[in-house]
Fold:
Amino acid sequence: MLALAKQGKPPLGCLPVRSGVRAALFVVLLLCFSIEVRAEKVDQELLALLRQTVGVADSFEDRYDAEVWLLAKSTVLAKMVPSKSKRLALLRKIHREATRAGLRPEIVLAVIEIESRFDPYAVSRAGAQGLMQVMPFWKNELGRASDNLIDPDVNLRYGCTILKYYLDKESGHLPDALARYNGSYGEYWYPERVLLAWERRWR
Structure:
């Protein structure tokens, strides 16, 4: 069993965290059963960050050195995404959006495995959608009601931005960031599942 208690050192699987991240009150309930969330309960700092990032044109290019990574991860992903062309296309998107956000792509892969098993059409009982199970209320808060969270590009942009925000908020402590992402802050069953998937298949 993975030891998830804080040990005063950066966790495995995350990039160095920028210093000086402003503290903000965590008031978003990602697992709420209604997408009608009052504006005063939305984390305004996270809202501003999402507004800044999701409006950027999707024009990122893959790094040359990502090709080896793509081939290695494609072998693992084959059990969940049989089509080679779809696997490689999805891996490029994940690598691009994770890198843009300052996340380890391997951690994002583990999150997606636990959240949706790489099904872009997945919808939870709480209404979370897509690969990274993003709650639809964020679209309304951003004034982007037409955004399609089933679209992998859109979903990854939202999901990676949210996860990186929580990672910064937790000063790089990945288990707590994952718990916030899942809406189970203070519990560690979800981080355990993600980190176990990362350790066994994606690192």
In short: The domain at 65-202 is CATH 1.10.530.10 (Lysozyme).
